[in-house]
Design a protein that fits this description.
With about 675 residues, the protein is mostly helical. Among the domains are: about 190 residues, Up-down Bundle (Growth Hormone, Chain: A), CATH 1.20.1250.20; about 70 residues, no CATH class; about 70 residues, no CATH class; about 70 residues, no CATH class. Helix content is about 65%, strand content about 0%. It has 29 helices and 2 strands. Strands 1-2 form a two-stranded antiparallel ribbon. Helix 13 packs parallel to helix 15. The radius of gyration is 42 Å and the shape is elongated. The protein starts with a strand and ends in a 13-residue tail after the last helix.
Length: about 675
Amino acid sequence: MNTEIGSLSIPPASLYSFEVICATLWVLVVNEVIVPATGTCFANGAELTELQRIGIGRFLMIFAMAIAALLEMKRLKSVQEGKPLSIVWQLPQYIVIAGAECFAIITQLEFFHGQAPNSMKSMLTAAALLTTALGNYLSSAIITLVAGVTTDVRCLNIWQRNKENSRRCLKTLPIPPALLRSKLWRSHLLRRRLPYPATAGFAASPSPFLRHLSTTPTPTPVTSLASSLASALATLSTTPPPVTSPDAYFFLHFSDVRPTNALLTEALSLSPPSTSRAAADLFRFLVRRRSLHPSDCALAVVVHHLARRRDFPAVRALIQEFPSALGPATLDAYLLHLASAGRPTDAVKVFDELPEQLRTREALTSLVSSLSTEGFPSHAERAVKKVANEIFPDDNICTLMVSGYANAGKLDHALRLIGETHRGGFQPGLDVYNAVLDCVCRLCRKKDPLRMPVEAEKFLVDMEASGIPRDAGTFRVLITNLCKIRKTEDAMNLFRRMGEWGCSPDADTYLVLIRSLYQAARISEGDEMMTWMRSAGFGDKLDRKAYYGFIKVLCGIERVEHAVKVFRMMKGYGHAPGVKSYSLLIKKLARHNLGDRANALFREAVARGVTVMPGVYKIDKRYVKAKKEKKVKKRLTLPEKMRLKSKRLYKLRMSFVKKPKRRMLRA
């Protein structure tokens, strides 16, 4: 080739310096132009991942080798024509290969650094660079192999200077691009088998060989990575916050994370409510830089976390920033938290501002359910009447509003709404009447508990007159309210009469009766009711929460021995006791002067990994055995002995004196 450019002579070996300059420029172009451009091109604002950048670099390498092969063909043809090409023609392939190195090699170093355990990052980064040396050895082996299998003598030294113009050896030039394509597919298959740091919600899991060499413990699944994200959220929420911005902080520590909805949910569940703004920044980072799709489920998790802190401006800003992700789950969480925060007007305003495609019957049902559940049925009724021409209320919406009035204790409004429902052509269901019956019972419990059976019977008669039969929910309401006014025997009689109406008790009825029997100190009947509950097929409802309720009731009536029995029963059925169960029993055993058993229970909790805080408990005086003091006879003095002797003699003399009889006096 012609190595002269004007009056300058360019040595061929100096072209490598041009590649270094091009790689430096490529780094600036990629970081300042290409990566931000991908964030604006994709709909979710995500950027290229590491594996995508490595793939782009591999294809650029193939393209560069193809350019080199075509240029070599052109060069040999020009030599035969006597018109050598200029060395400037080699610069385009160096520009392309510099871009390939920027995409593939630099990102590969970052990829290896992120995959490695903390104690092996330097070694594995060096191993990544070792692949370059192995590639050089592989290229030498390819040259030797080609030279060995080629029969043409002119092809023995294809890359040597004295044979650089051999045309017969042109057939071997497509070999490097073909090998590079095979390397690309081999790397793709290897990376498919390589566990990515957060694929499907799991942290990076090194190979058994690397795990054997590493001094750090093996990374755990999603919980380990979620804990790291939760710690980062807590760090960003401290006062004062870190100097770096949240986006830069997340990119520095979690640039190799492949996020999922499960990982985001776990991380936010481990984070305190004070990390609300940092959670919003994390969601933006995962969407824009780590290719998390802003779906309805993912946004609902973040909205729920923000609303726990009552940070509704941040929720509103996040919904405005990602309007395409707003769906039923996000809307349910937003409306429910607004209603629970005592902002029914804001909840109605959010519904009014919804776009046309989201103002559906399901959204209106969600609004009515949220407002009625949190005690704002009047706001729900006004919202329904406002959009009645657009969305006509159905049975479900009417049931929710009546139940909301009944739960709020507004019996007159509930009965009024039932009448309007009848006039509108709807027949309220059993759930509506059961809610109103519960309202009647609660009002009677507040004013006059003795009148509750009478008033409940009147309402049941009205139900039968309207053609509404009793069901298991009706009996559950009656039994629950009877147990709350300590009429356990009446509740048991009603329980036995359920079969006459063709009803079978449900799990909630059994649980209420068991607690009431234990509260009334009818221990054996409570155990028998628990056996009946399992026989009826509701054994799965006897979970850890139910057992803790039984233990709490038994400890409240000072039946600690039976509480320990129920505790053992809970463990026997495979329910692991929690902190509350252990703490309650340890406290009660210590107060009952059973310190040895309390210490044994504490050691059991520590062995099971339950974090029970040790404490000092005061023993109840009723359970302290009083020590019997031995009476020591006092040694009397001589005057005391004479005084006692005189008393005995006086009593002896008086015993012989005849006492006069008392006569009855006549009036």
